[in-house]
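Example with several molecule types.
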Amino acid sequence: MTDEVLRDLESLPGWTDLVAAGHVAPAATAVLERARSAALTQARPRMEAAQPVPARRGRPRLMRLTIASAAAAVIAVVASLLVDSPAGPSAATAAATERLAGVAASVSEDSLGPDQYRYRVEEEFELMQRAGPTVWRSESWTAADGSIWRRDTYADGQVNRQRFPHYPGPVPLSELPTEPRALLRRLRQAVGGSDWAEEFSVEHALFNALQDLLREYQAPPELRAAMIRALGLLPHVDVQDPAVDARGRTGVGLVWSHDEGAFAYRDVFIIDPTTAQVLESRTTYTKVPTVEHARYPLENRNTLIETSVVDDLPADMRDITME
Amino acid sequence: MEFSGDHSIVDPSRFELLVDAHGQALHAYLARRAPTAAEDLLAEVWLAAFQARDSFDPGQGSVRGWLFGVARNILYAYRRAAARAPTPAAADDDVWDAVDARLDAAALAPAMRAALRDLPAAERELLLLIAWEQLTPTEAAQVVGIPAATARTRLHRARERMRTHPAITTEGSKP
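Resulting structure tokens for the full complex:
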């Protein structure tokens, strides 16, 4: 301390004792980690959104997953213990997923030609504290090899265009296992190598991965059925039946509830019981801190508007660089 | 790698580095003043800091000082909420009470406790930011949102009040 004010203070009788009285034991790593986790779970969606224009839904997207190496192996070992643990889903969840899987297996595949794309339009909705809702339109074109082009159009006229490689990594979607447990093992490798592994529990990350696979891709019927059955193997997945989406359509909701103290939220995705298509993915925050100058999310969702097969990409999407 | 550089605060991808670099110090700050709520408050500090990161101006001070300022706002919001709470336990959770309890537990000389107690709250806060958080006078000024010169004046006054406090002088005059 070379500052004159500090030197004056240090000369006070009892100053050293006062400094010592402030000593607190260093916080345990677990304490810091809990606080860090609680904060980053909510901050990451905002980090994702910190793009030139708002990103799509807050959660990291499936297409960003990469298969990584040692970290994936470690996570996979942990995950296998979790997924194969006796704490399985409820009877209601098992029954609902089996019923939906039966529907998925019976819906004939709408296969894509080499020059065709599956076109999907969704409405995105985000509600934050102390702010009105934000709604924008998200369009995607998925090629037969799984590549995805996405165009988000916002109310102020901004347009965000992105292109993603196919998922998952070097394995074509059609080669994913159609046995539910084998599928979970394969997905654990991808999830373990992503930032999802830090943000969510492995089981929650698998829930999100399966949800995105079902929503974004038209996999072969037997694979879609396996995805739904795999959801039924995860512990902590609940069923909401009926569940109504933002457009008033009724489906079966598969639910993941998360409570970590300062924050609690509920992830629901609603599946059409007649087609096994995902109608809506929604995250509703049931508990967030109230801090004067902070804004936390209250709800975000994406709702299917339409889907079709098209023969070409729009001109403004053809030269988008791969992310 | 620069863990506490100013760039981290505006770069979302590097924000986590700040969490790691300053978490322990911020937790200690909160634990000294709201021991039962430090962990929850720390999570709120990070969230608030992330939300407000664009408001950080490197020309106005250090990241460390700015983060302590965010923590102070969270702490005071918590105090205001606690004061409105219906449960006495929450309402009693006042910073001075917590500070005094800490001084008592540390067996600080009664004269020093009395002198601190009798300081104006604004002066006491600056003094403790320096004594306990090891901040510079300039950083302490940044935390409470006053000019550095004002902080130095207040600290000088605080020092004089402490030095001339009757309890201190009486104790000092004892044989």
